C-alpha cells in the first residue's frame, strides 16, 4: 500500500499532510469517501503522494531533493486540504473519533495476548505451492495423489480449489466415488482427470448413477464405466441418453450390445459428437464398409471412432490400396486401422523387400496383419521377418 | 566406424537423476523421420528425456520449518517435508522447459536423416559447428514424368510427360554440367576477386567454402542409381535448404526435356558424422543418448578443426 507508506514518511515533517494521509489510510483511498465533485482534488493528491514517495527514497543524502519535497508539501497546503476539509466534517463522527481513545502499543512493549492466529493477507496466486503448507485441503489432496500442477492450468480451478474445505466440500464426493466402486488408489488420478466433479450437485450425480442402474447396468460395469472415463459423471442423463440412442439407432444395436459397447468404450460414448459423426461418415462413405461390417467394427474396436479422421483414412488407404487387404479381412482384424501409418509402412515395405509380404490366408507363408503391427520391432524381426534387428534398423534409416 | 544399430537396453547404473542431468551435455546424432517437423522431433526427444529423468531417483522435497504454538508460551520449531515442493504440487522435477536443444543442420518437414543436436551447455558447440560450415551430403530421390505444384511428391500433380527416351548417360552429363556451373559460382560466393593472384592460388588448391551463410553452394551432384523412371542423386552442399534441393531435381527434369519430382531427401552425412551414428526414434532414451554423446565427442576431439576452421579450402578427411 503506497498510501500507508507515505503516512509514516510524511508525518515526520508536516502535520497537515499527516491529517490527510491518516484519513486516507483509514478509509481505503480517496475515491470511496470523496464526493463526486471532489474527484479532481483526489487525483491531485494521489499524484502528489507518489511524487513524495519517489522523492523520499533518494532524499537521504542530497539536500536539494529535500528542498523540492518541501515545495511539493506547500502545494498540498494550497490545494489538497482546501478540498478535503469539508469532506471530513461530513463523516459520521464516532467513526472518525474513535481512534483517539485507543492507546496504540509502543514498538518495544511486551505482547501479552496469543497472536499465533494472525498472519498476512491471502494474496492472489497462480500456483498451489504458495498455500500448500497452510491449507489442509491441498495437503489432503496431495495425500490422495491428485496432481495439482495439472489442475492449476485449468481456468478458474485454482481459485475454486483453494476456497474448498476438505471435510465439508470434498469428503462427500470421495465417499460417493468410493460407493460407486472407484478403488482408493485410483481416486487421485480420478480427481486429476476430472476435478470438475466437485462442482456438480450431489443429487445430480446420484441421478446419473440411477440412470445407469435403470438401464440394467450391473454394479461392476458401472464401476468400469466410471473408472475408464472419469468425465462420464459430468454429462447429464439427457445427454447420455441421446448419445446411447445415436449409437443404437445408427448401428442397429440391441440393448445388450449397447451395454457391452458402453462398458468397453465409455470414452467413445462421451466423445465430441461432431467428431463421432464425421468418423461414421468416413467409415461409411469413404471406406465403403457396409452396415453389418460397421456394426462389427464398432463392437470389436470402438476406438476407431476416436482416431483423427484424416489419419484413419490415410491408414485405410495404405492398407487397402498398397497392401491389398480386403474389407472382410480388415473387419476381422481392425487393429491395423489404429496403427500409425509410418509403422505400418515401415514394416510392410520391409516385408516387401524380403519378399515375405503375403497377407492371403489361403496361401502358404501367410502373415497375419494383426501380428504384423503388434509387438516391438525385435519381436517383429524374430517372429515374422526372420532376420536380425540390425538389418531392420539399417532399413529404417533409408526412409 | 563400427555400426551400433542394436543398442541393448542397459539398466541405469546411476540412479540419481541429478548426476544424470549434470552429464547431459553434449552433441549427439539423431535420425529425423520424414513427415515430422523439426520442432516435433525436438519436443519428442526432450519429452523422453524428461520421462527418463523423472523416473529416476529425484531430489526429495525441501524441509519446511514452521514455528508453532501459543505466542505467550514457549513455541515449538517443527520441520517436515514441504508440501510446497512436492512433485504433485509443483510438477515433476525435470520439465520440458528446462532443456536447451538445438540442431546444427536444420532439416525441413519432408527431409529425413541425420540431424546433429546439442543439448544444454553444448549448444555452444553447435553454434561453433555451424559457423565452421561443414558440407552435408544428401541422397535425393526423384521420379521422372510428373511435376507437382510444390516440387515434392506430396503435392498435386500439375504436369505429366514422357520419359522413356531418357537414358543414364544423359542424366550423368546433365549432372556434370550442373556441377560445373555451381563450381564456377563458388569463386563469386567466396568473396575474392576472380582476376587476382589469391583467387588463382585458392583455385589451385581445390574447393572453397562460401564466405556468407545465405547462398546455397553445391559441390557435387552425382547420379548413383537409375531405374527408369526413378533416379537417385547424391548431392554435397553447404548452405543448402530443402527447397533448393527440390528445385534442383525439378530443373534437372526440365533440362532433360521432361519433368521430374523429388520423392525423398535423405541427409546421410554432415561434417564427419555418419548416418550409422544416428539414433532411431525408438532409441531416443537417456541411456542411448548419453552413449551417443560419447561417440560424437570422440569424433569432435579427434578433429578439432570441425569446431574452428582456419582454412577456407575443403579438405578430404577420413576417420
Automatic annotation (TrEMBL), chain A:
Alphabetically ordered keywords of this record: Transit peptide
GO function terms (MF aspect): nucleic acid binding
A single GO cellular-component term on record: mitochondrion
Keyword Transit peptide: yes
Listed InterPro entries: MTERF, MTERF_sf
Statement: the UniProt record of this protein carries the keyword Lyase: no
GO biological process, one term: mitochondrial ribosome assembly
Matching Pfam families: mTERF
UniProt family annotation: Belongs to the mTERF family.
PANTHER family per the UniProt record, alphabetical: CGI-12 PROTEIN-RELATED, TRANSCRIPTION TERMINATION FACTOR 3, MITOCHONDRIAL
Name listed for the protein in its UniProt record: mTERF domain-containing protein 1, mitochondrial
Automatic annotation (TrEMBL), chain B:
SUPFAM superfamilies noted in UniProt: Pseudouridine synthase
Positions of the Pseudouridine synthase II N-terminal domain: 107-236
GO molecular function list: pseudouridine synthase activity; RNA binding
Pfam families: TruB_N
Taxonomy, superkingdom: Eukaryota
InterPro entries: PsdUridine_synth_cat_dom_sf (IPR020103), PsdUridine_synth_N (IPR002501), Trub2 (IPR039048)
Gene Ontology biological process: pseudouridine synthesis; RNA processing
Family: Belongs to the pseudouridine synthase TruB family.
Protein name: Probable tRNA pseudouridine synthase 2
Organism: Camponotus floridanus (Florida carpenter ant)
Amino acid at each position: 500500500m503506497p498510501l500507508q507508506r507515505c503516512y509514516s514518511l510524511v508525518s515526520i515533517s508536516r502535520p497537515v499532510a499527516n491529517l490527510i494521509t491518516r484519513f486516507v489510510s483509514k478509509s481505503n483511498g480517496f475515491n470511496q469517501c470523496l464526493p463526486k465533485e471532489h474527484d479532481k482534488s483526489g487525483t491531485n493528491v494521489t499524484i502528489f503522494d507518489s511524487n513524495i514517495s519517489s522523492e523520499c527514497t533518494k532524499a537521504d543524502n542530497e539536500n536539494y531533493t529535500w528542498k523540492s519535497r518541501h515545495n511539493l508539501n506547500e502545494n498540498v497546503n494550497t490545494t489538497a486540504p482546501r478540498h478535503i476539509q469539508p469532506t471530513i466534517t461530513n463523516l459520521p463522527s464516532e467513526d472518525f473519533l474513535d481512534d483517539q481513545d485507543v492507546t496504540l502499543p509502543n514498538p518495544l512493549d511486551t505482547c501479552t495476548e496469543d497472536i499465533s492466529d494472525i498472519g498476512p493477507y491471502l494474496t492472489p496466486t497462480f500456483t498451489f505451492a504458495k498455500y500448500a503448507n497452510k491449507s489442509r485441503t491441498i495437503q489432503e489432496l496431495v495425500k490422495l495423489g491428485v496432481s495439482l500442477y495439472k489442475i492449476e492450468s485449468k481456468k478458474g480451478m485454482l481459485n475454486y480449489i483453494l476456497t474448498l474445505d476438505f471435510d465439508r466440500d470434498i469428503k462427500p464426493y470421495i465417499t460417493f466415488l468410493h460407493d460407486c466402486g472407484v478403488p482408493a488408489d485410483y481416486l487421485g488420478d480420478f480427481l486429476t482427470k476430472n476435478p470438475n466433479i466437485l462442482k456438480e450437485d450431489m443429487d445430480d450425480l446420484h441421478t446419473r448413477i440411477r440412470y445407469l442402474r435403470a438401464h440394467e447396468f450391473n454394479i461392476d460395469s458401472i464401476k468400469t464405466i466410471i473408472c475408464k472415463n472419469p468425465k462420464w459423471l459430468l454429462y447429464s442423463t439427457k445427454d447420455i441418453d441421446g448419445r446411447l440412442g445415436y449409437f443404437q439407432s445408427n448401428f442397429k444395436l440391441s440393448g445388450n450390445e449397447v451395454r457391452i459397447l458402453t462398458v468397453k468404450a465409455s470414452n467413445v460414448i462421451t466423445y465430441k459428437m461432431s467428431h463421432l459423426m464425421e468418423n461414421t461418415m468416413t467409415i461409411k462413405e469413404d471406406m465403403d464398409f457396409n452396415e453389418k461390417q460397421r456394426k462389427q467394427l464398432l463392437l470389436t474396436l470402438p476406438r476407431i471412432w476416436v482416431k483423427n479422421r484424416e489419419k484413419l483414412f490415410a491408414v485405410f488407404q495404405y492398407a487397402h490400396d498398397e497392401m491389398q487387404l480386403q474389407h472382410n479381412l480388415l473387419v476381422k482384424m481392425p487393429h491395423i486401422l489404429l496403427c500409425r501409418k509410418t509403422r505400418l509402412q515401415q514394416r510392410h515395405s520391409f516385408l516387401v523387400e524380403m519378399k515375405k509380404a503375403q497377407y492371403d490366408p489361403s496361401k502358404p507363408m501367410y502373415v497375419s496383419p494383426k501380428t504384423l503391427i503388434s509387438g516391438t520391432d525385435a519381436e517383429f524381426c524374430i517372429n515374422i521377418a526372420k532376420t536380425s534387428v540390425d538389418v531392420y534398423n539399417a532399413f529404417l534409416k533409408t526412409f | 566406424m563400427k555400426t551400433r544399430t542394436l543398442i541393448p537396453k542397459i539398466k541405469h547404473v546411476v540412479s540419481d537423476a541429478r548426476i544424470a542431468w549434470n552429464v547431459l551435455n553434449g552433441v549427439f546424432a539423431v535420425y529425423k523421420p520424414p513427415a515430422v517437423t523439426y520442432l516435433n522431433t525436438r519436443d519428442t526427444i526432450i519429452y523422453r528425456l524428461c520421462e527418463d529423468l523423472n523416473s529416476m531417483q529425484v531430489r526429495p522435497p525441501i524441509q519446511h520449518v514452521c514455528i508453532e504454538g501459543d505466542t505467550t508460551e514457549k513455541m515449538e520449531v517443527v520441520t517436515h517435508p514441504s508440501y510446497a515442493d512436492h512433485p504433485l504440487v509443483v510438477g515433476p522435477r525435470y520439465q520440458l522447459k528446462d532443456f536447451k536443444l538445438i540442431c546444427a543442420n536444420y532439416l525441413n518437414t519432408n527431409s529425413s536423416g541425420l540431424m546433429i543436436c546439442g543439448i544444454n551447455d553444448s549448444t555452444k558447440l553447435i553454434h561453433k559447428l555451424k559457423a565452421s560450415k561443414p558440407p552435408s551430403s544428401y541422397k535425393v530421390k526423384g521420379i521422372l514424368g510428373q511435376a507437382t505444384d510444390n516440387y515434392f511428391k506430396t503435392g498435386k500433380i500439375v504436369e505429366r510427360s514422357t520419359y522413356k527416351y531418357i537414358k543414364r548417360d544423359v542424366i550423368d552429363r546433365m549432372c556434370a554440367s550442373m556441377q560445373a556451373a555451381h563450381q564456377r559460382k563458388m569463386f563469386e560466393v567466396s568473396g575474392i576477386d576472380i582476376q587476382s593472384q589469391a583467387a588463382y592460388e585458392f583455385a589451385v588448391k581445390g574447393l572453397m567454402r562460401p564466405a556468407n551463410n545465405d547462398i546455397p553452394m553445391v559441390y557435387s551432384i552425382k547420379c548413383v542409381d537409375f531405374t527408369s523412371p526413378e533416379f537417385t542423386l547424391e548431392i554435397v552442399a553447404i548452405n543448402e535448404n530443402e527447397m533448393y534441393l527440390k528445385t534442383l531435381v525439378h530443373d534437372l527434369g526440365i533440362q532433360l526435356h521432361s519433368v521430374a519430382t523429388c520423392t525423398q531427401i535423405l541427409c546421410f552425412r554432415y561434417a564427419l558424422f555418419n548416418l550409422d551414428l544416428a539414433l532411431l526414434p525408438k532409441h531416443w532414451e537417456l541411456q542411448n543418448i548419453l552413449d551417443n554423446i560419447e561417440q560424437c565427442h570422440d569424433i569432435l576431439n579427434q578433429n578439432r578443426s570441425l569446431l574452428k576452421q582456419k582454412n577456407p579450402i575443403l579438405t578430404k578427411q577420413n576417420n
